[in-house]
Amino acid sequence: MAESAQTPETNISGSDESLINMPLDCPPSPLVVSASQYTPCGKLPSAFVQNFFVDFTDFQEVSRKGTLVIKWGGNCKLCKEKGSKKCFIKEVLNATSNFNQHINSVHPMEAAAYKQASKPPEKKMPGQLTLAQAFSKDSKYSRTDPRQIAITESVVDNLIIGMCLPIYIVERPEFRAHHQICEPKWVPPGGKWISGTKIPEVYEQPDNS
């Protein structure tokens, strides 16, 4: 019984340069192009990689096991601007881990700034606070907010009228510092408003007792 023919596995030695120029599995791109124009196998590098790398090219390289590997690479713009001789980063075709690792480890500040600038703006309905504003101590109550009204009335009724404290205590830095700790969203009213508007309103209310 005849044995079936088998194709022997061929290893490529580092000296056999004639095999380095074997055609790629997909139409090759121009030898050197910008990252945004580079389209090996119809795939673009990520926007993060495109922002930091230029002079993209694809090539074939013999691995340590003697097999042919298709790779791509490009020059780091930041390293290139600094005159570094080691600015070319390479990776297996269509992989980007080496590019990402280089930027995050060698240029962490630039990487963080790019990621922050790339964040989409928070979507909110008209008049709706963003998530950050909702949890921010700098977000104050409006004049018509029930909580704002309740605290103001309590200050007038219990402190100024009930305890006979001076009206303009609401403008003292110590008073405001105290309420900034207790209720940072409350906006203290002015003494002139209390004396001219709020106290007359209190005494004009009918006595239900």
Kindly describe this structure:
The chain is α+β, with helices and mostly antiparallel strands and 209 residues long. The chain folds into 2 domains: 17-117, no CATH class; 131-204, no CATH class. 36% of the residues lie in helices and 11% in strands. It contains 8 helices and 3 strands. The protein has helices spanning 47-52, 77-81, 97-106, 108-117, 131-134, 146-161, 173-182, 191-204, and strands at residues 53-62, 68-76, 88-92. Strands 1-2-3 form a 3-stranded antiparallel β-sheet. Helix 3 packs across helix 4 (108-117) and helix 6 (146-161) crosses helix 8. The radius of gyration is 35 Å and the shape is rod-shaped.
Quick synopsis:
The protein is 36% helix and 11% strand. It has 209 residues and is of the alpha+beta class.
SSE topology:
Elements: H1 47-52, E1 53-62, E2 68-76, H2 77-81, E3 88-92, H3 97-106, H4 108-117, H5 131-134, H6 146-161, H7 173-182, H8 191-204
Antiparallel strand pairs: 1-2, 2-3
Strand residue percentage = 5-15%
Q: How many domains make up the 3D coordinates?
A: 2
Low-confidence residue ranges: 1-35
Spatial ordering of strands, largest sheet: 1-2-3
Separate helix tally: 8
The main sheet comes to: 3 strands, antiparallel
The strand count comes to: 3
Q: What is the CA-based Rg, rounded?
A: 35 Å
- SSE pattern: HEEHEHHHHHH
Q: What class would the helix/strand composition place it in?
A: alpha+beta
